[in-house]
Amino acid sequence: MKLNPLNATLVAAGVLAMGAAGAFSLKPWGQDEAKASTPPAVVAMATPAAAATTPAAATAPIAPVPAQGMVPNYRAIFAQAGPAVVGVTVSGTHKLSQEEQQMQQRLPPGIENDPFFQFFRGLPHMQPRGRGGVPEQPFRGQGSGFIISSDGLILTNAHVVRDAKEVTVKLSDRREFSAKVLGADLATDVAVLRINAKDLPTVRLGNPKQLQVGDPVMAIGSPFGFEQTATQGIVSAKGRSLPEVSTTTGRVSSAVVPFIQTDAAVNPGNSGGPLFDGTGAVVGINAQIYSQSGGYQGLSFAIPIDVALKVKDQIVATGRAQHGRLGVSVQDVTHSLAESFGMPKPDGALISGVARDSAAAKAGLKPGDVITEVNGEPIVRSGALSSTIGMSSPGEKVKLKVWRDRAPIEIEATLGSAEEAKQVAANEEKGNAAGQLGLALRPLSRDERRQIGSEGVLLIENATGAAARAGIERGDVLLAINGKPVTSVEQVRSLMSGKPKSVALLVERDGDQLFVPVNLG
User: Fold this and answer.
1) 32 annotated active-site
2) In the annotation, is 263 catalytic?
């Protein structure tokens, strides 16, 4: 048994990838079953006062919209808000990843001449092989968005417009405008567009903090290109923390977003569209679905509108959004861990690692500490810490309530910048062969080791690059490198410091041990 929290696929809600000649999924030749389930869709806090700075809709409602908690008048909500929902079409090119290039190289010989293949050649992974390979791939796609100011300010998803050279916005009255991307934040998957137009209809913005599980919601967007499509459901959960997701133009991180989970039908093409509450106010941006088929299966996720508005304010002011960083690796607190720490209940974010020279290290935080509050706000799950810190600003001081040595203490930390951390990581990777290995590792707790029945200490949380190409999988446990047992990340760095051209990794997977040769070239 290995630790793998998601067995299905998290995909974007999504840009409908159309390539040059199609819009529906085709299982790529040579791709394994798990990866073949990925669809062609592009696979991702403002205070009430801040929200009020955005002009509200001037369109009069067709019929009274009931207060939250009553049966919504969906007809009235659509009539009032529908004109402010737009379609977003994009085109451009993106650089093929090594995995995508390898996928093309595994196509059967002569398949480019097959008429069936040629019909679908515009789809992802279906580009023909060229001389010397295909470094870039053209794409076309379609998503959704909504107007938040009458002078042409629009919100959508970052993955909708990522790498796009041309962005076109289509209004509900069929008018089309070329849009300028003011900025896109991959950490939250929020993008801000501007079109040159006046007196546009706008949506009314709500407060997602007032949403409760069971409240009715409604989504409007362009699933599979069907414009102005409305679906409805309920809030299934709040504060969901999701891993980063793959897209046809890269990866989108989601750790800082406390997603709203709903069962409203959302499909490829809905990405960037609004999620309304029962009063007709926008409370979220539809962004991702959890699916084993590539289409809607009852699990949809939206970015809370207060998160999006805070990002929007930064993008409009500076062209980009910044996020705070504490510099810790965290996990949830289980009942058994809470008992061993002497905690009254299993709440908080347990620190399993502290980054060197980070805000956490400077503040004196250490592995084994449990953060239970940030600025007086309770931290129940580890994901709440990621979103709270991520939506704070670099340089901001935060007061942490920490459980240490069977008693609570208070620690103040000055947050660093997530951008600075990425640069440091990139520099370390350039000068360290461990970066070439492509492993993200974290120590397993004693409870986790007992749970999976492993004597190993290092869990592989993500495998990219050389390790992924060799067959290393997320959830494997790393036991040894070139026959030398490893029990810490520092040992791995030390063994890789010689920059070997190849290594043999001993990993444990589903109770079995196997050696995997990794060519670092």
Assistant:
1) no
2) no
